[in-house]
């Protein structure tokens, strides 16, 4: 049976409810993240530096890497719908605390702890909705539905970020910088509460877990699943290489984001005008969002013409070209082009590799391998930010880092993804 098309999936009576809850939550994530970026990196009182930006990414992604192996166990023991509902309400509550701390200018351990909690809850929510997807949509449409959920979510995060920056400019005319950021976070609190209401449109048992999943769940289950996932990848070279390539691409993309933050904050605009830098970064992120959408859209056509393995290699080579523009000219236009092209190629790599992983792995190992996939990609994102931070000056002007990113991308395409090792195998 053929897979349902884009519009058919959007009109799917059950899937549309899951998409609505997921995408509103991720748009709200964008508002929340733009408020944090404004407060931590673009406040007049604080001059952004590379290490501070890298640590901010580490704080955001730490919950994803640390609790990732155990999320599946939790979601196999309790109603996923109830878990998402409670987590969204708890996240709304945590943002009220964050808004209070930011309004008072706090940047210490207490703010870091509550931010970690908020992002940890987000990891639980997205995992629950992804785990419930196979129970809502027919198997022949699962890959398309998963691609739509992930790519649509990425686009809505960017939309939310742009909306947050627009709200920031409005609030700036009424409040000081800290109060403006706190107001944005209060808006995000409302968004998470509305997401909780949308979750109620999904039945308590509609997205699982199934009875056999409850029977097998235990608190050592997560570690065992990770171990089995690594063991499975050791026996499936092309899947392992595809996952590593995707992680490397995401790590380089995040290193470019660190460059963009520093250039926009400290070089392209006066340090006394941080909002101009924030607006410039918003343009770069908007173009990156368009790149993400287009990368997902062109992937099926590229795969049909060249095959999954060759298309991933082509997109890795495409990723390697755009950072050279930043090395040649540290001005806004090359940076914007690099944001668009690298995001386009990266999303095409990600969507194609997700389909490769899903097609090569049976149901029993799929969750285990995706748990490993998740941890490796998030680890690479943090590593890319930290390595860039150690090499970049505060101005963000560097020929070395963009060339290094391009070199690693080219090396990945030439060696890790070379045809004799990265090709179709059973």
Summarize the structure.
With 426 residues, the chain is mostly helical.
CATH topology of the largest domain: Growth Hormone, Chain: A
- Could you tell me how far the N terminus lies from the C terminus, measured between alpha carbons in angstroms? 23 Å
Overall residue-averaged pLDDT value: 83
Radius of gyration: 21 Å
CATH architecture of the largest domain: Up-down Bundle
Total count of domains = 2
Q: In terms of structural class, how would the helical and strand content be classed?
A: mainly alpha
Number of strands: 0
What best-fitting shape do the alpha-carbon axes yield?
globular
Total of DSSP H or I helical runs spanning 4+ residues: 16
Sheet having the most strands = none
Look at the structure and give the CATH class of the largest domain: Mainly Alpha
Q: Roughly what fraction of the amino acids lie in strands?
A: under 5%
Helix content: over 70%
Order of helices and strands: HHHHHHHHHHHHHHHH
Query: CATH-wise, what's the superfamily of the largest domain?
Result: MFS general substrate transporter like domains
Poorly predicted residue ranges = none
Q: Could you explain the architecture of this structure?
A:
This protein has helices spanning 6-11, 15-41, 50-66, 68-75, 80-103, 109-132, 142-172, 177-199, 211-216, 221-234, 237-267, 274-306, 308-328, 332-360, 363-391, 400-416. By secondary structure, the protein is mostly helical. The protein has two domains: 1-216, MFS general substrate transporter like domains (Growth Hormone, Chain: A), CATH 1.20.1250.20; 220-420, MFS general substrate transporter like domains (Growth Hormone, Chain: A, Up-down Bundle). The radius of gyration is 21 Å and the shape is globular.
């Amino acid at each position: 049976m053929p897979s349902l098309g884009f519009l058919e999936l959007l009109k799917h009576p059950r899937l549309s409810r899951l998409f609505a809850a997921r995408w509103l939550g991720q748009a709200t994530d964008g508002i929340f993240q733009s408020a944090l970026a404004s407060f931590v990196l673009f406040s007049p009182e604080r001059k952004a530096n590379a290490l501070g930006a890298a640590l901010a990414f580490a704080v955001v992604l730490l919950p994803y890497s640390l609790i990732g192996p155990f999320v599946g166990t939790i979601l196999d023991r309790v109603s996923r719908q109830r878990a998402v509902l409670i987590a969204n309400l708890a996240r709304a509550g945590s943002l009220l605390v964050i808004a209070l701390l930011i309004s008072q200018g706090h940047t210490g351990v207490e703010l870091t702890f509550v931010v970690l909690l908020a992002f940890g809850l987000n990891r639980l929510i997205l995992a629950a909705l992804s785990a419930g997807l196979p129970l809502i949509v027919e198997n022949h449409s699962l890959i398309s539905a998963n691609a739509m959920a992930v790519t649509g979510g990425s686009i809505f995060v960017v939309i939310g970020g742009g909306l947050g920056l627009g709200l920031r400019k409005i609030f700036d005319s009424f409040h000081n910088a800290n109060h403006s950021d706190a107001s944005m976070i209060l808006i995000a609190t409302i968004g998470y509460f509305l997401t909780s209401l949308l979750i109620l449109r999904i039945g308590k048992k509609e997205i699982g877990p199934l009875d056999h999943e409850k029977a097998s769940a235990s608190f050592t289950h997560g570690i065992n699943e990770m171990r089995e996932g690594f063991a499975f990848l050791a026996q499936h070279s092309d899947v392992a290489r595809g996952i590593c390539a995707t992680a490397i691409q995401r790590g380089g993309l995040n290193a470019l984001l660190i460059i963009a933050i520093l250039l926009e904050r400290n070089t392209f605009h006066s340090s006394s005008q941080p909002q101009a830098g924030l607006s410039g970064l918003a343009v770069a992120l908007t173009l990156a969002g368009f790149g993400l959408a287009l990368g997902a859209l062109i992937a099926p056509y590229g795969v049909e013409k060249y095959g999954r393995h060759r298309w991933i290699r082509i997109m890795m080579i495409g990723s390697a070209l755009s950072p050279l523009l930043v090395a040649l000219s540290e001005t806004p236009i090359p940076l914007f082009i690099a944001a668009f092209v690298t995001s386009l190629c990266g999303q095409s790599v990600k969507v194609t590799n997700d389909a490769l992983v899903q097609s090569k792995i049976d149901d029993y190992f799929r969750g285990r391998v995706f748990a490993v996939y998740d941890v490796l990609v998030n680890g690479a994102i943090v590593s890319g930010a930290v390595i860039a931070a150690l090499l970049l000056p505060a101005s963000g002007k560097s020929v070395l880092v963009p060339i290094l990113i391009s070199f690693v991308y080219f090396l990945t395409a030439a060696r890790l993804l070379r045809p004799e090792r990265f090709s179709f195998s059973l």
